[in-house]
Amino acid sequence: MPVVCGSTWTRSNRLHSLSPSLVIALQRVYTQGVAALLDNAPRQSDVLIRLAELEQARVPVSASKLAQDLGLPRQSVRQYLLILQEKGLVNYDARVRQRASVSLTEAGHALTQTRLGFPIIGEVGAGQATYDQTQVLGHATLLRDALDLHEGDFLLRTCDDSLTGVGIFEHDLVAIRPTQEEPPSGHVVLVSWPQMPTATLKRWKRVGQRISLYTNWLDDVSIVLAARDVQIHGWMVGHIGIGNAGRS
């Protein structure tokens, strides 16, 4: 891929510092380069590059969408996709009367020099050394791709191993959703009380007007406080294991 002003260039970049004619020329070089790698098949190249652009924009891709964007007959795009699938560059399940999703394979990402992040796998069959492309449900690049994060949420790094019973180890990251609403019993919450001015993570349980705050699931010992003395700062909505990955 051409490099301009020290940064990697893609067709979607807006290169304001370059003249329009130079940008068009660079785009042509990129498109022709991909086409050359596809045995000088410009239409296949157009389909592959547009697919890469849509995936990077996180737009659902179908043969109809590609045909609409490229101004080509849908049947022609289907044929190009089947050829690209035979070359190992796209995933395309062309079943009759069904809306077929389209995605790049690892080889397709390598050819277009795009990367969507880490693959999200639905299942890995027994005896498989790894996964294959048909098992990829999507890709995770950003935290919100893997966690249900909302505006205002934050990550809290744990500083001890008091919650190992629920799989949270020291130095792990816990996603917190700020709220003062009371959680269901058993939920992990960020709380403080008069004798604990710094908020801490505990499991929550209410019995009448008393609140029991636990650490591990298996612990019988808990801190019991009057409900009026406990301040809720937020609920745990996700967890990233870092401190002791692979342990339980």
From TrEMBL:
Gene3D superfamilies xref list? Umud Fragment, subunit A, Winged helix-like DNA-binding domain superfamily/Winged helix DNA-binding domain
Q: Which residues belong to the signal peptide in this entry? A: none
Q: What is this protein called?
A: HTH domain-containing protein
Name its species.
Answer: Deinococcus radiopugnans ATCC 19172
What single Pfam family name could you report for this chain, choosing any that match?
A: Peptidase_S24
Q: Which InterPro entries match?
A: LexA/Signal_pep-like_sf, Peptidase_S24_S26A/B/C, WH-like_DNA-bd_sf, WH_DNA-bd_sf
The source's superkingdom equals: Bacteria
Annotated Peptidase S24/S26A/S26B/S26C domain ranges read 119-236
